[in-house]
Amino acid sequence: MNRTDLQQLARIRLTEAEILLAGQQYSGSYYLAGYAVECGLKACIARQTRRHDFPDKKTVVESYTHDLSILVRIAGLQRSLDQEIRNDPQGFAPYWTVVRQWSEQDRYSIIDQRTAQNLVEAISHRRHGVLRWLRRHW
Fold first, then answer.
1. What is the DSSP letter of 125?
2. Are the C-beta atoms of 81 and 104 separated by less than 8 Å?
3. Do 134 and 38 meet the contact criterion of CB atoms below 8 Å apart?
4. Most buried among 12, 16, 45, 118, using CB within 10 Å?
5. Which of helix, strand or coil describes residue 75?
6. How would DSSP label each residue in 43-62?
7. How far apart are CA 65 and CA 79, in angstroms?
8. How many angstroms separate the CA atoms of 56 and 91, rounded?
9. How far apart are CA 41 and CA 135, in angstroms?
């Protein structure tokens, strides 16, 4: 698994989430949409590792999480995230609030239509979406 794979998986998971949303499979849509962000953040982490370098063990171990806030920190994106929230308080900020509530534990939840739609929109919105912000860093 490399950075390019993770970038591609982020796009694929979002497409799958959109397909499931259109097919009224809200729980699966929500779950996969969150994984799109996780893959995007892990692509940002992978970008930090230079070719042929052996990665720091602490970073590697900490990267094996599904917690989006932790992944933001490991990816070195906290300052960028804070700035994006300040620069776009009406668009990006509320979208990030929706996205950061996602958890891999949601695979055991039944998600309603509105919740799934809100997450997919928060990630995919062309001007304010979280994936748009992540693409600038991966």
1. -
2. no
3. no
4. 45
5. coil
6. HHHHHTSPTTPPPPHHHHHH
7. 20
8. 35
9. 9
* Cα–Cα distance measured from residue 65 to residue 136, given in angstroms and rounded to the nearest whole number: 22
- 8 Å CB contact between 122 and 95: yes
Structural contact between residues 46 and 6, judged by C-beta atoms closer than 8 angstroms? yes
Q: Set out the domains of the chain in order of their start, with CATH numbers.
A: 3-135 (1.20.120)
Q: What is the pLDDT of residue 54?
A: 63
Q: Which pLDDT value is given to residue 59? A: 75
Three-state SS across 63-108? Answer: HCCCCHHHHHHHCCCHHHHHHHHHHCCCCHHHHHHHHHCCCHHHHH
Question: Which residue type occupies 12?
Answer: I
- Amino acid identity, position 43: A
Tokens of 26: 């809200």
Q: What is the CA radius of gyration of the chain?
A: 15
Token duo for residue 124: 């995919």
Q: Are 39 and 17 in contact (CB under 8 A)?
A: no
- Collect the ranges in the chain with pLDDT lower than 70: 50-55, 61
What pLDDT digit, counting tens, does each position of 33-43 carry? 999 999 999 99
